Amino acid sequence: MSAKKARKPRTRKPPQMDIRTVALRAKVSIATVSRTINRIPTVDPVLARRVWKAIEELDYFPNTQARALVSGKSHLLGLIVSEITNPFFPELIQRFEECAVERGYEILITSTNYDPRRMTSCVRRMIERKVDGVAVMTFGIEEPLLDQLAKQKIPLVYVDSRPAQPAAMTLNVDYRHGIRQGVQHLAVLGHRKIAFISGPLTLHTAQLRHQAFLDSLKQIGIAPNMSWLIEGDHTLEGGLRAMKHLLQSNDRPTAILCSNDMTAIGVMHAALDVGLRIPDDFSVIGFDDIHIAEFMYPPLTTIRMSCLDLARGAVAVLCPALQGQASGAEKTHVTIPTELIVRRTTSIPRDTIQTLKPLIRAASSEP
Amino acid sequence: MSAKKARKPRTRKPPQMDIRTVALRAKVSIATVSRTINRIPTVDPVLARRVWKAIEELDYFPNTQARALVSGKSHLLGLIVSEITNPFFPELIQRFEECAVERGYEILITSTNYDPRRMTSCVRRMIERKVDGVAVMTFGIEEPLLDQLAKQKIPLVYVDSRPAQPAAMTLNVDYRHGIRQGVQHLAVLGHRKIAFISGPLTLHTAQLRHQAFLDSLKQIGIAPNMSWLIEGDHTLEGGLRAMKHLLQSNDRPTAILCSNDMTAIGVMHAALDVGLRIPDDFSVIGFDDIHIAEFMYPPLTTIRMSCLDLARGAVAVLCPALQGQASGAEKTHVTIPTELIVRRTTSIPRDTIQTLKPLIRAASSEP
DNA sequence: CTGTTAGCGCCTTCAG
DNA sequence: CTGAAGGCGCTAACAG
Asked: What pLDDT, on the 0 to 100 scale, is given for residue A113?
């Protein structure tokens, strides 16, 4: 009698909403419910309908945690950025989210704020959450990062140029092309005194842009003036500072190319502040083509780098790896194009106009 | 003999890195490892040290999924925003992340893009990931949302004013104060013809600002001109359109208050485009004080709403609830202050200057 | 203070 | 095509 050795009734379970409840209500086994949810085609349509009905009625939502635990895939894509507030990132993040959600992934965003300690924490958090892949979009990369993530066999993609890395995929932005276009555009207008504000030169990607600038200059036979090569920090404030510095020089440049749009905006602000007119007195070119660039006054001429391409590239490069479709022959290097968008911050430099005037007068009085 | 009934060797387990491995290596039980990790103070320091050492050596990271599954708390905070690219959000998100990480939470961002269908998906994703709380920062809210989330007993906070809701906390922004300051500032300068561009009036928060504007006007005895009350959409493009519309009117306003900074930037752009000078010909006030507002040309006068306060408020309101500290007497309504930041887009209107001139001349020739 | 054990909710063989 | 049963990695009683 009372055979069942009265088990200690641990914590009373408040009737949870789980797969079991659904199975009970649909009068099938939990296996069938599981299969239905996962859209396994071999489920009897009749049962499936019963299951969906029960799910609906019970307001059941599968528990992603449990699912992840057993399946080993979290359906989470990590995203490490430098700082969310740099307007370049939100546009990228938005695209990234769209692409990820499209494929059934969620994204986990962490920001380093340029702080190595935070970077460590970001990596740890990624690993603990068992993300299925990580896209690194920081403007600076620590090597330990790679090690940790690689050690956990987490697919990694650098959304930015990097030297070839073991076990990591890379998205290469074609900086050279865009920057060459920018420099040539300036040169055609008549500029010979061109300055450049780079990002922090500790960053590989900043170096690439810097080098691309120097090469472009060289290509058209202009010798760079070292005092016009300034190291910025990709922020508006950095652009402001750099421009102020440039303005104090005796030998001022007539045009400036910036490593990103925020820097360019800072530069414009500094220039306008001292009464310089843009583009009449001074030409400015940015990089990124963030949304607001078009609505500055005057609208910023800039080099566009497509966020969508970048995001799509990252997700595409990550997902095949995730879905085991890695045929082994996946491209692990994708190149993102760049393109000059000419707006209103560039024009013929002052002195050229002076030179031109007599010619124009002559030309127009000729016929 | 061979007593052990040879178990079917399912899938061969590649020696996983789990709490067991750590326990083995540290020569303790898994319980001790668990306790050590969770910093339960009753663990013998000697054992704890062994455990930490093993963890270090093995590069062990606790599996958040498993943890969440058993403990019932995911340590995830959901964040639903309208669109990430509106510069107001990134600043908020950044703060929110900081606050959350500080307390050991991760954030899960989803964006609705003003699409009700996406909103549904956002909610579903939140529930499936078993977030411990959700902050809603969309510029538009669907009621079903509340239902679903409430049904799952997920703490909810609206980061914006809303009418009292059951089971949901609210952060109220003190729109009235900031907007009154703005209107009065304009009035003191001499403006009587003041326009207002609202957000989409389907949104409660847009209505609040709209109403605050009307009340402020009334308070100082100005009758609103209905044709100067325009419905925008919180985007730069919306501001552009609204301003173009206003410009076609025969009876133009001399100043404009915008429901957010992006709108104001659009307005400025439209104004400058037709040769109007700001603030000489036209005064503009924004709302939010996004980072870039200060660096527009001219720098935008705007009404600041602290992102940090907003984020802190949201996390604070969510976390006590999460940590079971809910004494029942928690404040569920927090008010976020606003404040006028006067920069360079507001000045005395043209006609007032005309009126003033003789007075000034008179005054200066008097002594 | 430590170890043993029973699940958390689900997927996935494997046997019907 | 369906159901029963064994974990996934971890925490939280409970028993020593």
From this structure: 83
Å from the B35 CA to the D11 C1'? 9
Angle, helix B175-189 to helix B204-219, in steps of 10 degrees: 40
Q: For A149 and D10, how far is CA from C1' in angstroms?
A: 22
Q: Rounded to whole angstroms, how far apart are CA atoms B2 and B9?
A: 16
In chain B the domains, ranked by start, together with CATH numbers, are 76-173+308-336 (3.40.50.2300), 175-305+340-356 (3.40.50.2300)
Calculate mean pLDDT across residues A232-249: 94
A295 contacts in chain B (CB < 8 Å): 236, 240, 265-266, 269
Q: Do A129 and B65 touch (CB under 8 A)?
A: yes
- Residues B65, A65 contacting (CB under 8 angstroms): yes
Q: Do A130 and B68 touch (CB under 8 A)?
A: no
According to DSSP, residue B91 is labeled H
Amino acid at A303: I
* Residues of chain A contacting residue B68, judged by C-beta atoms under 8 Å apart: 65
Rounded to 10 deg, the angle between the B19-26 and B45-58 helix axes is 120
Nearest one of A277, A270, A273, A280 to A244, comparing CA atoms: A270
Q: Is it true that the peptide bond before A279 is cis, omega within 30 degrees of 0?
A: yes
- Cβ burial, residue B224 (10 Å; 0-12/13-18/19+): middle
* pLDDT confidence band for B75 (50 / 70 / 90): very high
Neighboring chain B residues of A62 at a CB cutoff of 8 Å: 128
